[in-house]
From TrEMBL:
It comes from Candidatus Accumulibacter phosphatis. PANTHER family: INTEGRASE_RECOMBINASE PROTEIN MJ0367-RELATED, PHAGE INTEGRASE-RELATED. Pfam families: Phage_int_SAM_1 (PF02899), Phage_integrase (PF00589). SUPFAM superfamilies: DNA breaking-rejoining enzymes. Residues 128-318 form the Tyr recombinase domain. This is Site-specific recombinase XerC. CDD domains: INT_C_like_6 (cd01196). One of its GO terms (biological process) is DNA recombination. One of its GO terms (molecular function) is DNA binding. The keyword DNA-binding applies. Residues 21-105 form the Core-binding (CB) domain. InterPro entries: CB (IPR044068), DNA_brk_join_enz (IPR011010), Integrase-like_cat_sf (IPR013762), Integrase_catalytic (IPR002104), Integrase_recombinase_N (IPR010998), Integrase_SAM-like_N (IPR004107), Tyrosine_recombinase_XerCD (IPR050090).
Length: 321
């Protein structure tokens, strides 16, 4: 059962499962885990869901006291998760539970961490699942956008930004107008990445054109501190004062892809993968792509490399029947 509700972020709440709030100290420590310890809102949401679902399972099997939970119980829960979730999701759940118990141990709520010795499912990925576009498809999509309205200019600039700088959609949507600037006679962009990091990139000449056309067309000059990418009124195509959300971008991409006749089911991340793949296909170096994409590991960048997809297709076509 959920004993109460606590605020973990502005306009967001997380329930306190009864399992994790038997005392005032345990409740306080649970709340601190999601407020003081977990800063990323997406991680906070995922770990809160993991804690809530684990607590519900414990209640269902008769575990109502934190001190009664043992590694075998956590292992049994992991096996239960594997019947309905993919391995990466199970590993995420286990990571959240393990970190929460660690936090409770440090706070002297419990003596040991029952999840510390439990191993998650093995999962090895050599190629990402993000759908990518060919260079021709990406070009056709960009060229199909009607740029006679500020909304069209915005969409072209945003898609171009993700393609030419490998930007995450979250980093793009955090940009202010002042994050497009000129340095050394070249336009640069400042991306606001995860963890409060700033990542600066010079603009491809096409992106340079797209960004300045949008800023001029939407009359954003002089609004340095205002959001760069804003929502728009569908019927007029005029830009509003509200910043775009990731859901806005996802819907926009769906509309633009449909209008361009693209059948690949793409999302926000597809443009990042498309840009990295095309960069590598044209002789770019993996370590430079890693730096451009602001990845901690070249292995992560390699997941976006789809050059072998075309090789495989060419080989399949050798089967002449």
């Amino acid at each position: 059962m959920m004993s109460s509700i606590v605020t973990t972020a502005p306009n967001a709440t997380v329930s306190l499962p009864a399992l994790f709030s038997p005392t005032a100290d345990a409740s306080r420590r649970f709340v601190e885990f999601f407020t003081a310890n977990i800063r990323n809102p997406n991680t906070r949401k995922a770990y809160a869901r993991a804690a809530s679902q684990f607590a519900t399972w414990c209640e269902e099997v008769g575990l109502t006291d934190l001190h009664d939970i043992e590694p075998v119980h956590v292992a049994a829960y992991v096996e239960t998760l594997l019947t309905r979730l993919a391995s990466p999701s199970v590993k995420l759940h286990l990571a959240g539970i393990r970190m929460l118990f660690d936090w409770l141990v440090i706070g002297q709520v419990i003596a040991t961490n029952p999840a510390s010795s439990v191993r998650g499912p093995k999962h090895s990925v050599k190629k990402g699942k993000t759908p990518v576009l060919t260079a021709e498809e990406a070009r056709a999509l960009i060229d199909s956008i009607d740029i006679t309205t500020p909304m069209g200019l915005r969409d072209r600039a945003l898609i171009g930004l993700m393609v030419y700088t490998f930007a995450r959609v979250g980093a793009a949507l955090k940009m202010k107008v002042e994050d497009v600037y000129v340095q050394g006679r070249r336009t640069w962009v400042r991306l606001h990445e995860k963890g409060g990091k700033q990542h600066e990139m010079p603009c491809h000449h096409n992106l340079d054109e797209y960004l300045h056309a949008y800023i001029d067309g939407a009359a954003l000059i002089g609004a340095a501190k205002a959001p760069l990418f804003r929502s728009a009124t569908p019927h007029t195509g005029q830009i509003t004062e509200r910043p775009m959300t990731q859901a806005d971008v996802y819907r926009m991409i769906g509309r633009r892809a449909l209008a361009a006749g693209i059948q690949t089911r793409i999302g926000c991340h597809s443009f990042r993968a498309t840009g990295i793949t095309e960069y590598l296909k044209n002789g770019g170096k993996l370590e430079v792509a890693q730096q451009m994409a602001n990845h901690e590991s070249a292995r992560t960048t390699g997941l976006y490399d789809r050059r072998n997809d075309q090789v495989s297709l060419d080989e399949v076509e050798r089967i002449v029947i």
